[in-house]
Design a protein that fits this description.
The chain is built from 13 helices and no strands. By secondary structure, it is mainly α. The chain has 2 domains: 32 residues; 224 residues, MetI-like fold. The longest helix has 41 residues.
């Protein structure tokens, strides 16, 4: 009897009958999404206007090019700027570390919209001083102000992503590379960064997604990006589907980036799954 009880106690518990709660919730949410999609498609079919579509959709692609240019240029500039900021954040020099911390703290702690307004309207109020140093031609253009604001904002986030990814690599990697006679720069480039970028891939992807969605704020400073063209189409037609099409285009961009990130991650982590 004792042995029998021991075997029974060691036996795995019987699986629960019926569907688990998590599956029920998952299928319920999926059903809601399907219903929402069907409702959206039904609405677009009901209000379909070929004349409106032919007139305004080309302007959407014009705005889309502006949005993509803004995101790509500011992301690249932010990535370049994030390198010295991340280095300063990890530096043992108290002054450098404090300055980098203050920069990151400010740009991560204030809204992107406020930063864009500060650069476009705030700095622009110093026109005589800017003309004296030859910078007024830059700050009078909303496009350049948007690029500057977005680059400074994303640099703060990318610096923290880069710093966290580098620090996630164990110190043993540095010590092992030093024992092989590798210089610190060689170690960083050939040993640390390849491992750190795997960790940083997802956060970088999320940052670009946030940049794509946040780029809509530039419409408030007269930059005719995708949202700016959407507002223009709605102001002329008073047709609510203008915003629906814009939302679908933003959604398509985000999904394309997300799936692209998944594909890159699978390719660069093949050796980890073997």
């Amino acid at each position: 009897m004792s042995a029998g009880r021991t075997i029974a106690e060691r036996a795995p518990p019987a699986p629960p009958r019926g569907w688990p709660r998590e599956r029920i919730i998952g299928y319920g949410l999926m059903g809601l999404w399907i219903l929402a999609g069907i409702g959206l498609i039904s609405y677009l079919l009901a209000v379909w206007n070929l004349t409106w579509f032919q007139k305004y959709i080309p302007t959407y692609f014009s705005g889309l090019k502006v949005t993509l240019s803004l995101v790509v240029v500011s992301t690249i500039l932010g990535a370049i700027l994030s390198i010295p900021i991340a280095y300063a954040r990890m530096s043992k020099n108290t002054i450098l570390s404090a300055l980098a911390y203050a920069y990151v703290y400010f740009f991560r702690g204030t809204p992107l919209l406020a930063q864009t307004f500060l650069i476009y309207y705030g700095v622009g109020s110093f026109r005589p001083q800017l003309e004296a140093v030859g910078l007024w031609s830059f700050f009078r253009e909303a496009w350049y102000c948007a690029i500057l604001a977005f680059a400074l904002n994303t640099a703060a986030y990318q610096a923290e992503i880069l710093r966290g990814a580098i620090q996630s690599v164990s110190k043993g990697q540095w010590e092992g590379a030093a024992s092989l006679g590798l210089h610190k720069l060689q170690t960083l480039w050939k040993v640390i960064l390849p491992q750190a970028l795997i960790v940083a891939l997802r956060p970088y992807s999320n940052e670009v997604i946030l940049m794509i969605k946040g780029s809509a704020v530039v419409a408030l400073i007269t930059v005719l990006d995708l949202m700016g063209m959407t507002r223009l189409a709605y102001s002329r037609s008073y047709d609510f589907q203008a915003y629906i099409w814009a939302a679908l285009i933003y959604f398509a961009m985000v999904e394309a980036l997300r799936n692209g990130t998944d594909w890159i991650e699978r390719r660069i982590t093949v050796h980890l799954r073997r």
